[in-house]
Design brief:
By secondary structure, this protein is mostly beta strands. It has seven domains: about 70 residues, no CATH class; about 80 residues, Roll (Ribosomal Protein L9, domain 2); about 80 residues, Ribosomal Protein L9, domain 2, CATH 3.10.430; about 80 residues, Ribosomal Protein L9, domain 2 (Roll); about 80 residues, Ribosomal Protein L9, domain 2; about 80 residues; about 100 residues, no CATH class. Helices cover about 5% and strands about 35% of the residues. The protein is rod-shaped, with a radius of gyration of 82 Å. The N and C termini lie far apart (about 215 Å).
């Protein structure tokens, strides 16, 4: 591939100081054509004499084309662990005659085996010449396998305050040759210390490589501790209308790290919607709040229900007498609240079972109702008892002369009610104590009885007086028992001259009230307590014998002389002048 050298020659035989240049024509030798390695004859070519003094004798020689030295120098190569080998290239020098490496070289380089990080020689491999014009000179180099970059990027993490830390994980990129993170990494990440809400850096910790084929590139991240949700749920509450509000309490859930409600809440109180009437009132958060930055407060309200108070109405037991008007049906009230009065919350009134006869009648709620929605009415009834009326039966005093038939035993009735008549409520008749001798006999209730259960019979008796026959003047010696002559109402009945009238009952009469006055009878001696003989008629009194003269047809008259009392009477006079004074015989 080099240029042909000048084809030179040596000249001998010059004479006379001739020079080759002088005797030769300056023509050039030539050679056999060809450029490949080989031996090419050098011919006389155009070399000739210009001098006739010589004969030219030419002795050829050879041009030898030797092999050119083809230098192949391997390029140094680098690859990252795990990457494919780069092409093993080389530099070629010494090409001649327009030859190209591709035209004269075949095959390729190779390298020492191995994939781990290191230096591996690049060898000639099977690189060879396919041209005889060259000698191949190979100069090797190295393939250097460098560490791959293993990127470890920490995952951002979040946890709620009080929860356990999540696993600190990471993403790995750059693994080569089928390597796994587990096979080439050891240890683990850690984080900046702290448990309160905040952002804490995630550090490489003791995470390290156990493979020389990588360089570790760590990119950190953060663990964010977020606020825990503190749930406050108000307790449902109930109170009875008028009672004090119960304490508004609540349940707390979501406490963490051993916190207590008292430590993380400000101690404020719940509140409720205002109102005291029966109804449902929302329980609000009020002044309850957090004093810890580690929580978000979630409040769930509830209700305070005001229920109706029990208003007890207890009817008063009532009594009335048969025939009387009903008493007012009253009642007692208990359970009033909030300063309410019975009059402000009740309307209407009680009633009772119908009926007017003696008996027990239930007292009912009637039209008594509440005008307030704050109460339930509990009514407890009672009874109106109609008791028996008192029916007074007063026997009439009766008299008859001895030996005559009894008069009708009559009576007076008081206390009738409701338009009742004696004939409707009474049956039967009175009786008397037996006897027909002169004297007084009790008039008894006998068979008189009630036919109505509405009354109670109150019987008041009287006397039937059996009177002696009339005493007339001249009937001397006629006797009468003192016990048969008890008390004198009048000395003489002015309408019946000659008859004396006797009564057993005490009247408002000074004669009858005098304890010394035994009896009066026409012509009877009052000095004898047992027998009172008749005396002759006369208007004057014999004070010593205590005899009373014959009655005139007028009331007995007597008059005291002294005016101090009715004693030592000297003559008969009107007894009314001695009213309220003792009459002394």
């Amino acid at each position: 591939g080099d240029a042909d050298p000048a084809l030179t020659y040596q000249v001998s035989g010059l004479k006379n100081g001739d020079t080759a240049g002088a005797v030769l024509n300056g023509g050039s030798l030539s050679r056999v054509a060809g450029e490949n390695v080989g031996v090419y004859g050098i011919n006389q070519g155009g070399l000739g004499l210009v001098s006739a003094n010589y004969d030219l004798s030419y002795q050829g020689n050879n041009l030898t084309i030797t092999k050119a030295l083809l230098n192949v120098i391997a390029d140094a190569k680098t690859k990252v662990y795990g990457d494919a080998d780069p092409s093993l290239t080389y530099q070629v020098s010494g090409l001649k005659n327009g030859d190209s490496a591709g035209s004269i070289l075949t095959g390729g380089l190779n390298r020492a085996a191995g994939e781990n990080v290191g230096v591996y020689g690049i060898n000639q491999g099977d690189l060879a010449l396919n041209s005889g014009n060259y000698d191949l000179s190979y100069q090797g180099n190295n393939l250097t396998i460098t560490k791959a970059l293993l990127n470890v990027i920490a995952d951002g993490k979040t946890k709620v305050y009080g929860d356990a830390d999540p696993s600190l994980t990471y993403q790995v990129s750059g693994l080569k040759n089928g390597d796994s993170a587990g096979s080439i990494l050891t240890g683990g990440l850690n984080r900046a210390a702290g448990e309160n809400v905040g952002v804490y850096g995630i550090n490489q910790g003791d995470l390290a490589l156990n493979s020389g084929n990588y360089d570790l590139s760590y990119q950190g991240n953060n663990l964010t501790i977020t606020k825990a949700l503190l749930n406050v749920i108000a307790d449902a509450k109930t109170k009875v209308y008028g009672d004090a509000d119960p304490a508004l309490t609540y349940q707390v859930s979501g406490l963490k790290n051993g916190d207590t409600a008292g430590a993380v809440l400000n101690g404020g109180s719940l509140s409720r919607v205002a109102g005291e009437n029966v109804g449902v009132y929302g329980i609000n958060q009020g002044g309850l709040a957090l004093n810890s930055g580690n929580y978000d407060l979630s409040y769930q309200g509830n209700n305070l229900t005001i229920t109706k108070a029990l208003l007890n109405v207890i009817a008063d037991g009532k009594t009335k007498v048969y025939g009387d008007a009903d008493p007012s049906l009253t009642y007692q009230v208990s359970g009033l609240k909030n300063g309410d009065s019975a009059g402000s919350i009740l309307t209407g009134g009680l009633n009772r079972d119908a009926g007017e006869n003696v008996g027990v009648y239930g007292i009912n709620q009637g039209g008594l109702v509440l005008t307030s929605g704050n109460y339930d009415l509990a009514y407890q009834g009672n009874d109106l008892t109609i008791t028996k009326a008192l029916l007074n039966v007063f026997a009439d005093a009766k008299s008859k002369q001895v030996g005559t038939a009894d008069p009708a035993l009559t009576y007076q009735v008081s206390g009738l009610k409701n338009g009742d008549s004696a004939g409707q409520v009474l049956a039967g008749g009175l009786g008397r104590v037996g006897g027909e001798a002169v004297g007084q006999y009790d008039i008894l209730q006998g068979g008189l009885a009630l036919t109505s259960g509405n009354y109670q019979l109150n019987y008041q008796g009287n006397l039937l007086s059996i009177l002696p026959l009339p005493v007339t003047p001249g009937d001397l010696g006629q006797l009468a028992a003192l016990s048969d002559l008890r008390e004198l109402q009048k000395g003489r009945d002015p309408d019946t001259p000659g008859d004396a009238v006797y009564r057993t009952t005490t009247l408002e009469n000074p004669f009858l009230e005098n304890p010394f006055l035994r009896a009066y009878a026409l012509g009877m001696d009052v000095s004898d307590p047992n027998l009172l003989p008749a005396t002759a008629a006369g208007p004057a009194e014999d004070a010593s014998a205590k005899r009373v003269g014959q009655f005139t047809d007028r009331p007995l008259r007597a008059e005291a002389e002294s005016g101090a009392g009715c004693s030592n009477q000297s003559y008969l006079a009107d007894y009314w002048s001695c009213f309220n004074k003792p009459l002394n015989f």
